Every structure is written in C-alpha cells, then in structure tokens.
Amino acid sequence: MTSVVRLLKPALLALVALLATGCSKADWMVRQSAMDPKGPVSQVQFDVFMATVWLALVLFVLVGGALVYAVVRYRERAGQADAPPPEQGHGNPLVEIGLIMASVAALVVIAIPTLEAIWYMEEIPAERQPDSKLAAWYKGAVPAEAADEVLTVDVVGKQWWFRFEYPQLGLTQETKRTVPNELVIPKGKVVRINLRSEDVIHSFWVPKIAGKVDMIPGRRNHMWIQADQAGHYYGQCAEFCGDSHAYMLFRVVVLEPAAFAAWVESQKAPAPEPAPGSLAAKGKQLFAQKTCIMCHRVAGHYEASAGFGPDLARVASRHTLAGAWLDHRDPAAQAAIDAKGDTEVSAPIDPALQRRNFHDWIGSSGVLVDAAGKPLIPQDIKPGNRMHYYRMFNVAGLRETKTTLTQEELDAIVEYLMTLK
Hints:
alpha+beta; Immunoglobulin-like; 2 domains; 12 strands
C-alpha cells in the first residue's frame, strides 16, 4: 500500500495543480459569466450561489472526512486476515435523528437566501425607485402618467431574435419604431422588463446583469434589472427553441443617462435618404422590388411592413447582425480587449467586415444566384431562418415565394443598408 501511495503522489499533485488553474478569478471574467456581477440583481444571485458553494464545501469536508476516517481506522492490517470482524452496529436513533435535523438545517440555510433573492428579483425595491423614475433623470419627452414610473422595456422573443420596445418613449410596434437584438439601457437606473413570446418558449438571460426568466406564449412574465457599469454586455436565449436556438443572441448596451436620451431621439428620427442616382438609391428601390418590405420596416422609407422581421432603420449602427450571430467588430481587436479583462468594452465596428456580413447574411439560403440560377451561398448561416421563405410564416394570403438576387442586386441592397445609421 505504501508503494502505491508513493507512486500516486505525483499524479495527485498534478491533478490538484490542473484543477487549481481553473480557480483564477481572471478565468471568471468572461463575456457571459455569472461570477462577475455588474448589477444588484446579479450580485444577489451570485451571493446565493456562493452561500450554497460554501455550505456544500462544509458538507463535503464533514462527510468526506468521516469516510476517510472510517476507511483508515477500520482497514485490515497486516496479520489480521483471519481475525474476527469487529462488533457490528445496527443503528443509533440519536445519530440518525441528528443527521436528519442537520440535513433540514442545511436546506433551510439554502432556502432562506434563495427565497429572498426570488422576491428581490420579482419586485423593484422601494429604495431604488426614487432615483430611477423617469422624471428624476430622463430629459426627453414622456407622457405625464409615465413621469413617476421607472423605465419599462417590452422584450419579445421570436425565432430566432429579440425585439425591444420602449412604450413610454414612443419606440413600439404601433409607432413603427422598435429595436432588434440590442437592448439599450441607462447606467445606474432601474429598468422593468416585460417578457413575452410570439411563437415558442424562449428565455431572457444576461448573466452579468440579471438572471434568466422564461418567455412563454400566452403568458406575461417580468423582472427588473440595473447595470452599474457602462459597457457592452452579452445575452442570449437560454431555453431550447428550435433549429437556431444556439444562434439566438443579443447585446445589452449600457449608456450614461444623457447618452441614452440622445440614443432615443436618434431612434425616432427617419432613416437618412441615399444620394440620388447612387448605388444605395438603387438598393433602396430593390429593397421594395425584392419584397424585403414584406417583413422589414425602415423608418421614413418603408413603414407599411407588418414587422415580421427586425426593424432596419438603424441596422448599420448596430454591432451585430442575424440575431447578434454575425459580429461587425474586428475579432482580433475585440480579443485583445477581452484578454485584458475588459469584457464590457466594445471594439468599434469594422466597415469592411460589416459589409461582408451583410453580403453573407442576405445572400444565404440559396438567394444569391449566378447567371444560370445556381445558388452561390447555398448554406444558411442560421438554420431554419425565415428570411426568403414566406411559407414559414404560416400567414393566410402569402404565397410560397423564394427571392433570388444577382451579385449586382445584392451589392446595391447592401450599399443601401450601409447608409442606415
């Protein structure tokens, strides 16, 4: 036995060293880490998690220690192979009751902070409301009845993207002004989030700011969030919802209150007109001719769409495309920022990469064809996406249609979209 232990010591030490490499705090500071809270809700949830971890560690040490003691104390020693077994026990009521009570106590220790965290996330604490009411910080125009309310955002889950609406600020489906895939909120202010789904069950999750809450068809869930640090945060759907569930991402952009007010005004303004006779102007015409307007709105240009797809009025100002799956930022520049631990800092948009992403996304699903009608990009970037295939909407009156584009037509449409900032 001694020789075996001696041989195993180096392997055990190597295993401990390997496990220790995963305990660095720097390794927690990744884009979607719940171990790096940046808001009060995520902080409360982190505290509950750590309380559970410490309790589990204590239990592990006690139970594991008792096991090791029993193995060592009652092991068979040399020369005792034929010795009679020690006296056997058949239960001890005092010990058994004590273990039951200890287990109940452990569950209570976990349950109390867990329930407190659930109630905390359910309703906005009274002490956080005065400074977060719109009248206290927002300098733009809001309805009188909303002045004493905190900012409210309606989040709608769809296959496979998110739509954000700000009813108090006039950015809604009814006003034909919505924001897809980038939730913009003010720093240090409470935001009430109303959650619903228009198709299947989704789940809203921003690990550094808040926990996850399901979005269920026919049911309205809600939560509240607050971000204490400006920056660029990562979120995604956390409930399997179909082919492209893993590609259903979104971003949370946290701005200073003044910058947030300016952003709201920019969202209300109509999209800029392309220069007459330019390639972008031709792209604007093709945007209608190729039936893009059946699903997409462009404020000030095409607002009659039913809004099946994302609003494109400011599509060129967003950091991502295709439900936040295609990122417009230079990967090397962003990786360098992330390596420093600045996972909330965003690299600027790379126009060349953005243009290529537009080409790849619009040209996917076999839409881009050559002179012989053969698809040039046959593979979908997001499997099952509904763009180009109207029959998937299951809407009465829409015939089964497939759009095709030549390279010149695609270039013109992309040029038009690049002007929408």
